[in-house]
Amino acid sequence: MAFRRALKHTAVVGGGAVAGVFGLSQLIEYKKTQAQLARVAAEADLRVPFADDLPSRQAQLAALQSTEEFDVLVVGGGATGAGCALDAVTRNLKTALVERSDFSSGTSSRSTKLLHGGVRYLQKAIMQLDYEQYMMVKEALHERANLLEIAPHLSAPLPIMLPVYKWWQLPYYWAGIKMYDLVAGIQNLKSSYVLSKASALERFPMLNKDKLVGAIVYYDGQHNDARMNLAIAISSARHGAAVANYTEVVRLLKTKDPQGGEEKVCGARCRDVITGQEFDVKAKCVINATGPFTDSLRKMDNQETKNICQPSAGVHIVIPGYYSPDNMGLLDPSTSDGRVIFFLPWEKMTIAGTTDSPTSVTAHPIPGEDDINFILREIRNYLSPDVEVRRGDVLAAWSGIRPLVTDPNSKDTQSICRNHIVSISPSGLVTIAGGKWTTYRSMAEETLDAAVKTHGLSAQPCKTVGLMLEGAKGWTPTLYIRLVQDYGLENEVAQHLASTYGGKAFDVAKMAKVTGQRWPIVGKRLVSEFPYIEGEVLYAIKEYACTAIDVIARRTRLGFLNVQAADEALPRIVQIMGKELGWSEEQKTTELEAARKFLYLEMGYRSRSEQLTKTSEINLDNQEVVRYKKRFHKFDKESKGFITTVDVQQVLESINVHIDENALHEILNEVDLNKNGQVEIDEFMQTIVRL
C-alpha cells in the first residue's frame, strides 16, 4: 500500500497534474522558472568574500591555525565532505575542511561519471514493492536535475541505449524505463523512446546486430567527477570556508562536558602533510565524511566502535573513442555474472565499467587484470564481430572503492544499507557514510541538519539547492567562441577550457603562453593528442594542486584518459610546477617518480605491461635480442619499456635531424601494432622479425 501511495504521489506531484493544467511548452517554461527561482533564493543574501581572488593554500592553513574556534570542521575532501563544507558555510556557520590527500583523490574521482537515479534500483523497488528504495531513486533524480542546473559546464544529459535481443523484453524494459521518466516528473531530462533494429544500428553502428530486436533509449546525466568535486570545494572556499588539502587528522581533540562529565569531541590535531607541521583546529562540531576510511576516524573517537564500512571495488577501463558514438551510451543490464556494465562516451574516449567485488580499504587501489578482462569480455558480447576488442586498446584503468555501509542503529547490523546513513556518536562525532555521487548535496543537507540539532548551532536553513558552483556563472554553450576570438586559442582547446572551467576559462586563457606560431597564437599543448595546455598547470596551482599527480589526475584528466600521454606530459608539468613552487632538483625527481608510480600502479600501467609481456612471442636468437634491445634503449633512455614520439624527437634533434611531427606519428603508427599510442619493446622486436 505504501508503494502504491508513492506512485500516486509521483503522478500528481511529479508532473501528471501539472502537465494536465499546462501544455507542454508551458510545462517547460514552468521548469525553467522553478530552477531560476531556486537559484535566486539560494544566492539571496549570501556573502561571497573571495569572489575575485581565491585564498592560497598557505592562507587557508593560516586561517585554520589562527581561528579560535570553528562551528564545523569537516574531515574529508571528497564529494560528500566538500558538499558538507559548502552547505555549512552558506548557512553562515564558521566552517573548516581538511583532506589528508588531494580533493577528490579517492572514490569521488573514480566513478562511472554518471549523474543518475539508478534504473536498476527502481526495478528492484517495483519488483519488491520497496518504498525506501523508490524514495532513494526519486531523491537521486531530483539531485540529478539540480546538479545539471548548478554546474552546466561540467555536466550534460546523455542518451543511453538499452539494446533488446528478445521480443518479450521490449515491453518489459519499456515499462521500466517509462516508470523512470515518471518518477523524475517535471525534472525528467528528456522522454525515453523505442528504436527499431535499423534505427538502433544507425545510432550505434558498433552494436552486435545478430538477434537484435530493437532498443530503448533513456536519458541520464554525465559529468566530470573530479572537476565537479573541485568546483564544490572551491565554491565553499569562495564563500569563506577554510579548506586545505594535504592536511591530515592525527587525532581527535576532546574535552569534558561540564554538565554530564562525558568526553566530547571539540576539534582535531592536524598535520600539514607537505611540511610536517602539526596544529590544533578547534570546532564545536566535527563531521566525519571520509568515505571508505569512515571507520578509521570513528575508531579515533572510540577504539571499541564496530566497523560499519564494507568496501567494494569497482574497476573501470578507458578505450579509444571509436568504440562508441560521440553522444550515445550503452547499458548492459545483465552481464554474464548478473552485474551491470555501462559503456559510455567520455572526454572523446569510451569508458566501460564497473565491476563490484569486496576489497580491503586502501588509499591506493589497483585495478586487477581479471576485472579488466571481464569488462572486455562483456564488451565483446554487445559489439559487432567486425569490431575487434583488444587488450592493447585499454588506455587506462582504475579501481574506486565504494563505501557500502551497515546501519549501526539497525537491529540487523550485517545488512548493507542501500542508502546513506548519518550517525552521531556519544561524544558528538557526526558521521555521514554511504550514498552515491549524485546525492552528495542532499546527504550534506541531512548531515548539517543533524549537526545543527545535536550541537545547538545557530544556523540558517540550507541554501545549496540552485546554488551555482565554481565556473557556472558566465558560462554559455558558445563561450568557447569568445576564447578563440579574443585569445587566439585552437577551437578544440577553447571548447575544452569552456567545458572544464566555465566562466573561469578566461582566467586560464590569460595564463596561456604565446606559441610563436601563426596559429594558434596562445596555448601550447602538454601533449599533441589532447587539448590540455601548459597554462592549466599554472592555474592548477591556484586551485590548490600541490603535486604532479594532482594535475594529471584531477585538475586535468589526462591520467584517467591515457596513461602513456600522461607519462609524456609529466616532465613538462614537473618543470612548470617546480619553477612556480620553487622545487629543488631533488624534489622534481621525487615528484616525477611518484607520478609515474601512480600511473604504473593505480592507472593500469602495470597490468598492461604484464599482459604484453605474457602474450608476446619473438623468434630471435639471444645475440639478436641483445643487439636490438640496445637499439631500442637508445630511444627509451628512461627505461619506461616503450617509445613515444617525444623520445624519437629528442634522439633525432640530438643528431640535428628534423621530421614533421605528423609524419613521425604516421611512422610510429606503423610499428604500434596494438594502436595504443606507444611502441613497446615487444612491438619493436616483432617489427624487426617481420622485416
First-last Cα distance: 75 Å
Biggest beta sheet summary: 11 strands, mixed
Q: How many extended strands?
A: 21
Shape: globular
**Spatial extent as radius of gyration:** 26 Å
Unreliable sequence segments? 1-22, 612-617
Structural class: alpha+beta
Oligomer: single chain
Helix content: 40-55%
Strand content: 15-25%
Helix tally?
A: 25
Average pLDDT across residues? 88
Cofactor: FAD
GO molecular function: calcium ion binding; glycerol-3-phosphate dehydrogenase (quinone) activity
Pathway: Polyol metabolism; glycerol degradation
Family: Belongs to the FAD-dependent glycerol-3-phosphate dehydrogenase family.
Any descriptors?
alpha+beta, 11-stranded mixed β-sheet, 8-stranded mixed β-sheet, 21 strands, 18% strand, disordered N terminus
Description of the molecule:
Belongs to the FAD-dependent glycerol-3-phosphate dehydrogenase family. This is Glycerol-3-phosphate dehydrogenase, mitochondrial. Keywords: Calcium, FAD, Flavoprotein, Metal-binding, Mitochondrion, Oxidoreductase, Repeat, Transit peptide. Residues 623-658, 659-691 form the EF-hand domain. The chain is an alpha+beta fold. It is built from 25 helices and 21 strands. Strands 3, 4, 5, 6, 11, 12, 13, 14, 15, 16 and 17 form an eleven-stranded mixed beta sheet that branches. Strands 1, 2, 7, 8, 9, 10, 18 and 19 form an eight-stranded mixed beta sheet that branches. The protein has a two-stranded antiparallel ribbon with strand order 20-21. A hairpin with a 5-residue loop joins β9 and β10 (278-288).
